[in-house]
C-alpha cells in the first residue's frame, strides 16, 4: 500500500492526475488553495496502489508517493499485542 501526498499550494488544479489514476484514487477538493484553485486530493476510504501515474503526469511536481513498509507495521502490531 502506498500513500499520496499532494502539495495543495503548488497544485494548479489541472486534473491530469485525477484523469490518469487508473484506480480512481484522486478527486478535486471542495476547498481552494491560496491561488484560488481546486487542488487534487486522495479520496477518503480509497487505497493508493502505488502505480505512480499521478506522480509521472503532474506538470508541477506537486505529488509525492510513499510506499508503506507493511512488514514493519505488521511486526510492530504483533509486538505491541504481547
Report on the architecture of this protein.
With 82 residues, the protein is α+β, with helices and mostly antiparallel strands. It has a single domain (2-80), classed as 2-Layer Sandwich (Alpha-Beta Plaits). 26% of the residues lie in helices and 27% in strands. The chain has three helices and four strands. The protein has helices at residues 16-20, 53-57, 70-80, and strands at residues 2-6, 26-32, 38-42, 63-67. The strands form two sheets. Strands 1-4 form a two-stranded antiparallel ribbon. Strands 2-3 form a two-stranded antiparallel sheet. Strand 2 (26-32) and strand 3 (38-42) form a beta hairpin. The radius of gyration is 15 Å and the shape is globular. The two termini are 25 Å apart. 16% of the residues are buried. The model has no long low-confidence stretch (mean pLDDT 88).
Radius of gyration computed on alpha carbons: 15 Å
Proportion in helices: 25-40%
Average predicted local confidence, pLDDT:
88
Biggest sheet: strands side by side, in what order? 1-4
Helix and strand string, N-terminal first? EHEEHEH
Biggest β-sheet description: 2 strands, antiparallel
End-to-end Cα distance, whole Å, is: 25 Å
**Which descriptor suits the 3D outline?**
globular
**What is the annotated CATH architecture?**
2-Layer Sandwich
Unreliable spans: none
Number of strands: 4
Amino acid at each position: 500500500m502506498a500513500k499520496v501526498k499532494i502539495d495543495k499550494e503548488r497544485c494548479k488544479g489541472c486534473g491530469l492526475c485525477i484523469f490518469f489514476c487508473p484506480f480512481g484514487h484522486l478527486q478535486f477538493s471542495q476547498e481552494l488553495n491560496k491561488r484560488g484553485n481546486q487542488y487534487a486530493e486522495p479520496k477518503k476510504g480509497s487505497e493508493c496502489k502505488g502505480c505512480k501515474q499521478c506522480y509521472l503526469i503532474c506538470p508541477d511536481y506537486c505529488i509525492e508517493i510513499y510506499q508503506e513498509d507493511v512488514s514493519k507495521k505488521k511486526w510492530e502490531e504483533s509486538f505491541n499485542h504481547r
